Amino acid sequence: MISTQSFRKIKPIIFLVIIAPSFIWSYQLIVGNLGVNPIEKLMDSLGEMALRLIVLTLLISSLNEFKKFRFLIEIRRMIGLFAFFYVSCHFLTYIALDHFFDMNFIIKDIIKRPFITFGFISFVFLIPLAITSPKIILKKIGFKVWKKIHYLIYPAAVLSSVHFYMLVRANKTEPAIYIFLILLLLLYRLYFKIILPQLAR
Amino acid sequence: MKISPLEITSHKNYLNRRKFIKSSIAAGLVLGSSKSIHANHMSDKNLYADQLDEKDNLNSYEDITTYNNFYEFGMGKTDPSENSGNFKPKPWSISIEGLVNSPQIIDLENLLKTVSIEDRVYRLRCVEAWSMVIPWQGFSLSELIKIADPLSSAKFIQFETVFRPDEMPGQKRRLLVWPYVEGLRIDEAMHPLTILSTGMYGHDLLNQSGAPLRLVVPWKYGFKSIKSISSIRFVDKQPDATWSMMAPNEYGFYSNVNNLVDHPRWSQGTERRIGEFKRRKTLPFNGYAEEVSYLYKGMDLRKYY
Which of A119, A57, A56, A53 is nearest to A83 (CA)? Predict the structure, then answer.
């Protein structure tokens, strides 16, 4: 079994591994090495990275039920913040590079296109999670309130995977896998949090 | 004359080759001295300058041949260039069937001896809101229609892509309903802008671009321009078309480029020209309104999108 303490030692490595793609993609964008349609490529890569990290935080939460995997909770906050970081970059790319701050168009786009609406709501849901992530704030607002806020990760995750599902033109296998995984992890949590305690009563 | 390694495919029997050499000589270019495909096509750009609209720039050969939607080779944009190596565009024949006086199977090489290959620089607007400017070589579809000699009852044409799952790995999965089919109304097919393309930038079409024969209808979204055509069928009713069967509310039979009719999931008002940073405004009929809008006179283009 991996102890939390020894795991803490490799945390910086995980940090670097997760932050690396953002540097690599920025570099590729600057030197013109992101393919023929670099803005699309950047936006897709950032979005998918964010989605993967969101699924990863959910997975860590679920695995936390098992003592064996409890050490993973050590990196959940970091991964959650990185998910927010990548979602923010994804959103900024859409605003700055894809539509060059044409706010008039962007606002209409967000309202009119369900897949963009979903993506945007998902992003908005993640903001309070990011804000309440420092330990000081957790202490201030109390664990109960904090926990309630952080349940927002589930609708955010569902919306972001649906956002992905809707934008794909054909063969929706890949986004469907994300939706499936997220729903599975959600049901699993519901089982542990709601059904199991009632059965135990 | 020495031919450089830019000969990705052999051209000896194809007219594209001759046409290209001819025009190269005319332009005073020294063929065969360039070191890379890229370098060569940079100089080619001058050849097509007179066909280029004022605000347009040609996209590079590299961009055009590495960023493709051709689901027969996979869904990613680079899949077609990466996965089409096993596809055999030669020999090739096209079956002409349906409501015609002379149904036949034409060998492509024989067909190319009877038609005249021209340069056509067209904008290509993808339904996904990106666009390119491409120097095609090809011949008017109307020439082939004349050979087919359709009956007066023929109102539409259906085109079909070859079905070869062993050579087209995407066809092994049900990404779309195979084979890919598309259609045009006869008057659209007869329009002088509508061509069957056999080449691009003076080369035979590469597999990822729809070798050896593809449709190009520049005022319609790219998916109408069906690739690797194996049959052309003359029919009396509006034929099925792959994307409009798959999602009829998103892709209509006509699919004319229309900045006023949005795709349900995104705007068609603007487009990203590959190679440019800021989006461009999309033009009605992709900038070919003057030439083609009469075809749709009196039609509600919101209904017939």
Answer: A53
The A-side interface with B (CB below 8 A) comprises 35-37, 39-40, 97-100, 105, 109, 113-115, 166-167, 169-171
What's the angle, vertex CA B296, arms to CA B290 and CA B300, rounded to 5?
Answer: 125
Choice between B6 and B242, residue whose per-residue pLDDT is larger: B242
- Identify residue A93 by its one-letter amino acid code: T
Q: Which two tokens stand for residue B298?
A: 């009196």
Among B272, B273, B281, the strongest candidate for a mutation testing the A interface, having the largest count of A CBs within 10 A, is: B272
- In this predicted structure, the answer to whether residue B9 has a pLDDT above a threshold of 70 is no
Q: Do the Cβ atoms of B216 and B120 come closer than 8 Å?
A: yes
State the pTM of this model: 0.84
Whether A166 sits inside 8 A of B265 (CB atoms) is yes
The CA distance from B162 to B170, in Å, is 13
pLDDT tens for B251-274 read 999 999 999 999 988 899 999 999
Interface of B with A (CB under 8 A): 63, 66-67, 71, 75, 77-78, 128, 130, 173-176, 246, 265-267, 270, 272, 274, 277-279
Q: A47: closest CA among A98, A12, A11?
A: A98
User: Complex ipTM, two decimals?
Assistant: 0.81
Query: Which H or E element spans position A110?
Result: helix A103-112
> CA-CA distance, B124 to B219, in Å (whole number)?
8
C-alpha to C-alpha distance for A94 and A96, rounded to whole angstroms: 6
- For the stretch A131-176, pLDDT in tens is 999 999 999 999 999 999 999 999 999 999 999 999 888 878 999 9
- Cβ distance of A99 and B279 shorter than 8 Å: yes
Express each pLDDT in A68-77 by its tens digit: 998 999 999 9
Residues recorded for chain A: 201
CA distance A115 to chain B (A): 7
pLDDT digits (tens, 9 = 90+) for B157-193: 999 999 999 999 999 998 899 999 999 999 999 999 9
Residues 6+ apart with CB under 8 A from A146: A132, A137, A138
Round to whole Å and give the CA distance between B208 and B65: 7
A161 exposure class (CB count in 10 Å sphere: 0-12, 13-18, 19+): buried
DSSP A135-188: HHHHHHH-HHHHHHHHTTHHHHHHHHHHHHHHH--S--HHHHHHHHHHHHHHHH
